[in-house]
Q: What sequence folds into this?
């Protein structure tokens, strides 16, 4: 069965510091991975997907199949990055998502 | 961007009653919608996939007679929690798939409290 693990419930960093939110997965098929973000009092929204290989709001994530990881990184954290971040794995022909438990990122001044 | 709206955002009901939650795609048509449940400080758990014009498919462990899903149109899916009990109290979130990109858009969620 597929599984997504986010080991950190809370990550607190200072503004300008690098950020890395960890995500590991287990899946027997070919994985498609996403990062979703939920800002305070807002709905969940897509941040980025691994197949796009894009940088959104300064965030990047590289799929490492050897380590079964998809860590989210940003070189310099901003206050507006404070939010809940969920890593998710797509399966079932791309129709279904399994979410990790989420990491609350807090960027302090 | 595409918008998905849920209604109601909050509902309180008595034990034994049924509650209906609506999920609408406001500016696009969605043949597939998904219902999730989220307990406090926990992840979103997929409950079922709602398919327009056909029966919903439920994930293992989810009682289909308890959580009735109807997807009667390309813009509306409903989740009815039947004979609700306090343990059904939770945050229910829907998402809709945008054709073409396949991107999922999420509703704002509905908090159900069963007394």
A:
């Amino acid at each position: 069965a597929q599984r997504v693990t986010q080991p950190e419930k809370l990550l607190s960093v200072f503004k300008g510091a690098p950020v890395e939110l960890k995500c590991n997965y287990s899946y027997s098929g070919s994985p498609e991975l996403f990062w979703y973000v939920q800002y305070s009092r807002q709905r969940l929204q897509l941040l980025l997907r691994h197949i796009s290989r894009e940088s959104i709001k300064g965030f990047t994530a590289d799929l490492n199949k050897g380590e079964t990881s998809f860590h989210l990184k940003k070189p310099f954290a901003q206050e507006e990055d404070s939010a809940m971040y969920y890593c998710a794995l797509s399966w079932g022909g791309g129709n279904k998502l399994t979410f990790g438990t989420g990491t609350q990122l807090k960027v302090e001044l | 961007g595409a918008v998905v709206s849920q209604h109601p955002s909050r509902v309180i009901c008595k034990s034994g009653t049924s509650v209906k939650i609506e999920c609408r795609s406001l500016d696009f048509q969605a043949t597939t919608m998904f219902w999730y449940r989220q307990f406090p400080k926990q992840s979103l758990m997929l409950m079922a996939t709602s398919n327009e014009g056909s029966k919903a498919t439920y994930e293992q462990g989810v009682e289909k007679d308890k959580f009735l899903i109807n997807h009667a149109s390309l813009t509306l899916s409903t989740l009815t929690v039947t004979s609700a009990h306090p343990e059904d109290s939770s945050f229910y979130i829907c998402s809709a798939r945008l054709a073409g990109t396949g991107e999922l858009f999420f509703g704002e969620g509905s908090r159900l409290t069963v007394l």
User: Anything to note?
Assistant: Chain B touches chain A at residues 4, 32, 34, 41-46, 49, 93, 95, 97, 102-109 (CB under 8 Å). Residues 15 and 85 of chain B are 5 Å apart (CA to CA). The longest strand of chain B covers residues 44-51. The mean pLDDT of chain B is 92.
